[in-house]
Amino acid sequence: MFYREAGDFKTSYQEDNQTFPIRFDRYRYYAVLAVGFLVIPFLINDYWANAILLPFLIYAIAAIGLNILTGYCGQVSLGTGGFMAVGAYACYKLMTAMPEVSMFIHVILAGGVTALVGVLFGLPSLRIKGFYLAVATLAAQFFLVWLFNRVPWFYNYSASGQISAPERDVFGILITGPNTQAWATYLFCLIFLTGSAIIARNLTRGKLGRTWMAIRDMDIAAEIIGVNPLRAKLSAFAASSFFVGISGALFFSVYLGAVEVGEAFGINKSFLVLFMVIIGGLGSIFGSFAGAAFLVLLPVALKVVGVDWLGWPTDIVAHLQLIIVGALIVAFLIVEPHGLAQLWRVAKEKLRLWPFPH
Amino acid sequence: MLDIAAGTETQVETLLEVNNIEVIYNHVILVLKGVSLNVPKGGITALLGGNGAGKTTTLKAVSNLLHSERGEVTKGSIVYRGKRVQDLDPAELVKMGVIQVMEGRHCFEHLTVEENLLTGAYTRGDGKAEIQRDLDLVYTYFPRLKERRRSQAGYTSGGEQQMVAMGRALMSRPETILLDEPSMGLAPQLVEEIFGIVKDLNEQEGVSFLLAEQNTNVALRFAHYGYILESGRVVMDGPAADLRENPDVKEFYLGMSEEGRKSFRDVRSYRRRKRWLS
Amino acid sequence: MPEQLLFAIEVTLNGLMAGVLYALVALGFVLIYKASGIFNYAQGVMALFAAMTLVGIMQGQVPFSHLINAVFGTEVHHFGWHVPGVVAILLTVGVMVVLAWMVQQFVMRHLVNQEPIILFMATIGLAYFLEGLSDLMWGSEIKKLDVGLPQGLNAWIDETTFNLFGYGFFIDNLDIVATIIAALLVAALVAFSQYTKQGRAMRAVADDHQAALSVGISLNFIWVLVWSVAGFVALVAGIMWGTKSGVQFSLSLIALKALPVLMLGGFTSIPGAIVGGLIIGVGEKLFEFALGPALGGATENWFAYVLALLFLVFRPQGLFGEKIIERV
Amino acid sequence: DLVFPSLDYRTGPYAANGIPVADAYADYFEMINARDGGIGGVPARVLPCETGYNTEKGVECYEATKSEGSLVYQPYSTGITYQLIPKATADDIPIHSMGYGRTSAKNGKVFSHVFNYPANYWDGASIAIKHILDLNGGDINGKKVALVYHNSAYGKEPIRTLEDLAKKHGYELTLLPVDHPGQEQKSQWLQIRREKPDYVLMWGWGVMNQVAIQEAANIRYPMENFIGIWWSGSENDVLPVGEGAHGYKALALTSPGSDFKVYEDLKKYVYDAGKAAGNGDQMGTVLYNRGLYAAVLAAEAARIAQEIHGTPDITPGMMRDGMEALDITAERLAELGFEGFATPFKVSCENHGGNGMGAVQQWDAQAKTWTLVTDFIVSDADIIDPLIAEDSAAYAAENSIEERCN
Amino acid sequence: MLDGSDGYVTEDGRKIGAVVMEMKNITLRFGGVVAIENISFDIREGEIRAIIGPNGAGKSSMLNVISGFYIPQEGEVWFHGAKRPPMKPFEVARQGIARTFQNIALFEGMSVLDNVMTGRLTHMTAGIPAQALWKGRAEAEEVANREVAEKIIDFLEIQHIRKTPVARLPYGLKKRVELARALAAEPRLLLLDEPMAGMNVEEKEDMCRFILDVNDEFGTTIALIEHDMGVVMDLSDRVVVMDYGKKIGDGTPDEVRSNQEVIDAYLGVSHD
Ligand SMILES: Nc1ncnc2c1ncn2[C@@H]1O[C@H](COP(=O)(O)OP(=O)(O)OP(=O)(O)O)[C@@H](O)[C@H]1O
Ligand SMILES: Nc1ncnc2c1ncn2[C@@H]1O[C@H](COP(=O)(O)OP(=O)(O)OP(=O)(O)O)[C@@H](O)[C@H]1O
Ligand SMILES: [Mg+2]
Ligand SMILES: [Mg+2]
User: Fold this and answer.
1) Chains E and D touch (3+ CB pairs under 8 A)
2) Domain for residue A30, yes or no?
3) GO MF terms on file (chain A) (predicted)?
4) Do chains D and B meet with 3 or more Cβ pairs nearer than 8 Å?
């Protein structure tokens, strides 16, 4: 009734390979894009931009990145925080070394640097598997954080060891620094998110995506039918780190503006992004969005309800928040282990059959 | 329906009764659309049908393993010895004497063959000596297992794993065994042996069997009663001897036609089509 | 003996002792992994929760007093009694068993047969939950834990070694106690998992939930059992670390010190946890001793991981872990 | 009303330290409202926001509270402070980072909206060395000083100063970083046991403090030679160690204890009225007093701002002016009920960092109290001022800031 | 019938060519277990070669040796007249050897179509940038390979489940999808490990038809392991019989069937 695909026929394989083969979905996608690009920038204020939208957009990019590695290629990584730090520090070094270059280029280059580092730390994945690998990626996490903390070159020998983003622009519009406009930073991140999502989608629906999924589902069989596991895994590490690096660069330069590596890119960050990916749905780009939105909004929502509406003491609310987030994560996994994306899929399937139960 | 074991004309008690059950996976996929069947005490009941007919699902519904596959019985009832067992824990069902040998072996990879067998005796409380006796019994059934008793089950061959799974079930001294495709992947000699064991257990120890099989030929040779399942429904049932003589069964499940057995090389020139399908 | 060598020996000895402390935490991980294939991230928080509960009981704190006071406007904080250590430990063990039961009832039961990563995530959810709960229940201030364990320089060793080498070794009494307890614990746990029916069932569950169910192993029982034992191990670790550094939030972070130990020893091996702990302990201390100054120090955090990683490249299942079965 | 946001951390790894500070801030303004009806007749409103010591939550708190007319931010976290410096400057809202944050913010010519009076980390380093000098009759040539520090931006702050001071006074400095969170410090303390430095300084935070003090006790290091920064010198750090902590020293920004007149008012108007924040069990602790001091300085600045601008309803911008014109005299302190609590200082356009004075306090494990064992000591401006000029100049260059106050 | 290296003609008139693969004195041990002991045999162009033997005889291990997954302690593998150097399994696959597995090894997280497309991976070459933008080579290649995959899907009559996740399929269909995946690689040598286990007669006949058609239409050489003697005897041109690592027979179905050693070790009483 509400959701039909009948009568929506495809006459070529190109059409069948589209991201949104169902017309209804396609229109909805265009509508969301239009709202994101044309409506929200006019409504946005500092609070929405800095407290909700920017973190959402940036975490969504990181989640897409991790989803490629964990959701598509099956390599659980707990080094996301470390890789985000690489993106941030690369961006910082580029920004300060080449002030006149556009931020766009810096952010993309930062992604590229992170991809290289990612490949390096991906090398052991050829031998180490499963949770052993997950724990092994913590080596990247701790080592990178230590390195950025330890070597003054990375923070330009500043006395405090922190890095702060100087003012930089794109086509004359300020993107970093204190004097930015909410809409500008928002749009900048949105462009990166949209680009990341499209690229990630393209990568995952074609040859590379299948290579990754084959490795994820059964690596031995994949190798026997002709997948080079080293290349598959390393390309996943590279692609994943690229996006994670971009998100780290944005996280530092556009969102926070100043970071200290241990605090901003500590192990908690790794877990947070992993949560997003799993709650959203492993192996789903949409899931990365959903997971990021959920984990950015939930604490804020709980805080608004607890502190602003109910007027409870902030610490009790904060403890309850932990309890609720924890319980919700477990509840979600129980209801739908494959995440919000799967929940959405099942809902659609039900709608399609509606009003018949099966 | 007849609650009669083939060959004997005496009325026997129904052990397991499945009444018109429906099973749905993942809340949306309807797999069993009303399946009813009876397993008499001391009988071997075969459940036949093509791929995806729902044999495995039926067995899992009985042994309550559906939950862990995100499936549920939405309609109908399953009664064992007069007791509704749908809401029981699988472990309790094993204690009641119902054990399933799962399709696709499912050995404990990291345990040795012998440890695998011993887990089968988990629910038993009758002492080491008894368990040891049964272990020896299993080894006499499957001498190959004795040779490989110290290897990790994960490294044994497909057929050896099948033996482990079977032996493990026997170790629980069951009253009813749900056997899912026991012959799959076994050498012909071994298939005979396994069914021989089934027959032995049935006749000597009075163990009842519910047997899902693709190898109709063998299954109908050993079973007393058979049900044929197609797309989640029982389409035919009757004493095994009758089924064996049924022309449709002969044609589609036994591969015999009027002219006798066809060579597999000839398949390119003909194709069986079920009368009741298209 | 040359001084440098004496120091190196002292550092090694202390590394061994530190390793035992890591191993105590790692043991809890191993138990649960062995029994259900679950990588239980909440193990660290369980240690925190156990230690907090122990202190709370000993001091007669009213649980959730802060919440109660905020909601009802009351002013309750203490029952006004003090419970002796041994009794409090027993009561805490009881609480950990209840916790295990709840975990089984509300979490694990519903996640039978799911992929390992899903179960792993569930334990992270659990960690958040417990973290919030411990603070809400017992307050977030730093608490002193004193169940009467000795602490500080062991004078006897100091004197003896001084007489022998002219340099007294520093060994902490608490570390010695920890070593003894760890040894007992490991012996008991190995015996349990290798030679009992429950131990075997536990390993079966880890391999295949469905098959375990099908042979009549009650997952629920096994899980309550294992989580209780893991809870007990967490309590032991919590007592040791709590005595050392006070009972407070950071106690949950000791999990991070246990992970490389786990990798190195193998996720499935109880003795592996100890051996891994010793290697990591000595390795990181010696590395810091030898190269730390040159690299600017504070290398311990990452060095443990890198060391474990290097080991894994040669033995992907860790030193004593079960071989990862790769077959088609 | 006058809005004072309070970025608390009553949860997370440093909750134990965040609670007393937050309690004090809330209690003081509660008392001002009850006793004086607010500041200049306008009631003060404390707006708590929980950060959990987490930078992102700090940003969220800032954004959520700034539109309510928040007058001054006290982040109590170096990370959040760094975040807010450019943002708040752009939004024309002042920041007060008391004894933490960016040290070179002392230079008001570059940092128009950031204040870090009365003292900063570099002052702290210098004060500690001065104390050691005093103990040694002014000569510490050839002595060994070790610094045990949290391996983060915060912990590394004093290194430059200590190195420069080492050149000046001829002591030998050993650096011993401890990685977060700092539960395992065996290597560091074995090294201390071996090298027997004459003094050990500590820039620690959270659990690292207790473990360090415990380890020092374990190796029987003479506690009176072990001196922590003011973030390593609260009851939380020494109580868990018990007897072993006896004699441990730490720097102090204010006097410890509750022997001040203001406590009478607090008791009367807040505690006894059942309005105490939190559990109401933190009075007189080191960190509670620090929170009180922060609150009184904020309230004073607000009052001065009202005077300068002639309006009781001040904006954050006016508040900034008030802070820049802050003049804390001994008389004023006494008037406010804080006699002997801290030292007088005066803020100016150039100097946002106060007088750079601190004292040394020592822990008595039997009585479970801290007591000041020195007068307030002033830091060595010769060493620190050039460092501040250098760092703030770099910041000004990086962000193309023009110097003010000319 | 075996006459020199030039092949032979089968009863039904197919021409069998030269030796494509030759196993020479292969020995494979796992610790104490000798899975394969000094076995030699060959496979000829265009023939259907069966390997039979009791459970645990080492048949699957032999296929694994051919795929390069197990490396034998002794012996040589000759492929197209040359000794094969040590190779990774994926390199072997790229030489045109595809296979199915005894314990179905499909990619459970993917749809049937995607699984079949993974079989085409060895034929796809687009670079990462092209794929990221979904332009040029990437898209054209995708469509071209999709056509091949669709042909195979049609051929194996699994169109109706094209978009179904394989995890949901019943056993028999999974086996068919696995065959589709192997065929998608357009192999010259196809290894099938018990392709008909767990099927009823009707389905076995379908499977046989596919195997014969593949062999006929594409001239693919096939080596298969099977326990259903009916199938083996009817389908295969030559049969190798293994028993606990040793070769106990090699020849035409009729020869093997009447070999006493084979009857004792494997067939038991004849019953077909
Ligand atoms: N976990 C599951 N989720 C969704 N669908 C399932 C699941 N398991 C089975 N099915 C579907 O249920 C139907 C019946 O499957 P079942 O395994 O019971 O068949 P079967 O008769 O045992 O077949 P086979 O002989 O191939 O084993 C199939 O169409 C299958 O696709
Ligand atoms: N990776 C391995 N490690 C140890 N032993 C192995 C391994 N692979 C196979 N084996 C052993 O080698 C022997 C041959 O195994 P294989 O799987 O080749 O048998 P098979 O002939 O295929 O039997 P089936 O018909 O039962 O599948 C078995 O005894 C098995 O246990
Ligand atoms: Mg089945
Ligand atoms: Mg095999």
Assistant:
1) no
2) yes
3) branched-chain amino acid transmembrane transporter activity
4) no
C-beta neighbour count of A266 within 10 angstroms: 19
DSSP per position, chain E: ---GGG-EE-TT-PEE-SEEEEEEEEEEEETTEEEEEEEEEEEETT-EEEEE-STTSSHHHHHHHHHTSS--SEEEEEETTEEPPS--HHHHHHTTEEE--SS----TTSBHHHHHHHHTGGG----HHHHHHT-THHHHHHHHHHHHHHHHHHHTT-GGGTTSBGGGS-HHHHHHHHHHHHHHT--SEEEEESTTTT--HHHHHHHHHHHHHIIIII--EEEEE-S-HHHHHHH-SEEEEEETTEEEEEE-HHHHHT-HHHIIIII-S---
| Residue C72 counted as domain residue | yes
Query: Which ligand neighbours the alpha carbon of E52 most closely?
Result: 2
D199-203 and E246-251 strand pairing: unpaired
Burial of B270 (0-12, 13-18, 19+ CB in 10 A): exposed
The structural domains of chain B, with segments of one domain joined by +, span 13-97+175-257, 100-173
Instruction: Please count the structural domains in chain C.
Output: 1
In a domain, C240, yes or no: yes
**pLDDT band at E1, cuts 50/70/90?**
very low
- The residue extents of the domains of chain E are 1-96+187-272, 110-186
Q: Which residues of E touch A73 (CB under 8 A)?
A: none
pTM, whole model, 2 decimals? 0.90
Q: Are D196 and C170 in contact (CB under 8 A)?
A: no
**Strands D2-8 and D44-50, sheet pairing:** parallel
ipTM of the complex: 0.89
User: Which residues make beta-bridge pairs with A205?
Assistant: none
Domain that holds residue A44: 23-265
What architecture is the E1-96+187-272 domain classified under in CATH? 3-Layer(aba) Sandwich (3.40)
Q: How far is CA A248 from CA A110, A161, A179, A253, D182, in A?
A: 9, 18, 21, 8, 26
Residue B150, SS3 per DSSP: coil
Phi-psi region of A89 (alpha: psi -120 to 50; beta: other; left: phi over 0): alpha
Is the residue at A301 inside a domain?
no
B180, two tokens: 């899912």
Distance separating alpha carbons of residues D166 and E234, to the nearest angstrom: 94
Residue A192 lies inside a defined structural domain of this protein: yes
Q: Is the peptide bond before C116 cis (omega within 30 degrees of 0)?
A: no
Smallest Cα distance from B24 to chain E, Å: 12
B13-97+175-257 maps to which CATH number?
3.40.50.300
Give the pLDDT confidence score for residue D242 in this predicted structure.
Answer: 87
Give per-residue pLDDT as tens, A122-168. 999 888 888 889 888 999 999 999 999 888 899 988 877 888 888 88
Query: Are E66 and E223 contacting, i.e. CB atoms less than 8 angstroms apart?
Result: yes
- Domain assignment present for residue C324? The answer is no
Q: Report d(CA D113, CA B43) in Å as an integer.
A: 90
Structure tokens that stand for E152 in this block: 């195979």
Cα distances from E68 to residues B194, C112, D97, D189, E182, in angstroms, run: 34, 36, 66, 55, 16
Higher pLDDT, B215 or B22: B22
How far does chain B reach from its first CA to its final CA, in angstroms? 27
The closest residue, in CA terms, to atom 6 on ligand 2 is B155
Q: Rounded distance, CA A296 to CA A303, Å?
A: 12
Tens of pLDDT along B142-158?
A: 888 898 888 888 888 87
Q: Is residue C322 part of a domain?
A: no
Q: Work out how many domains chain A is built from and give that number.
A: 1
Residue A310 lies in a domain: no
Q: What is the structure's pLDDT at A9? A: 60
Closest to C21 (Cα-Cα) out of C248, C263, C287, C261: C261
CB contact under 8 A, A216 and E185: no
E105 contacts in chain C (CB < 8 Å): 328
What amino acid occupies position D115? F
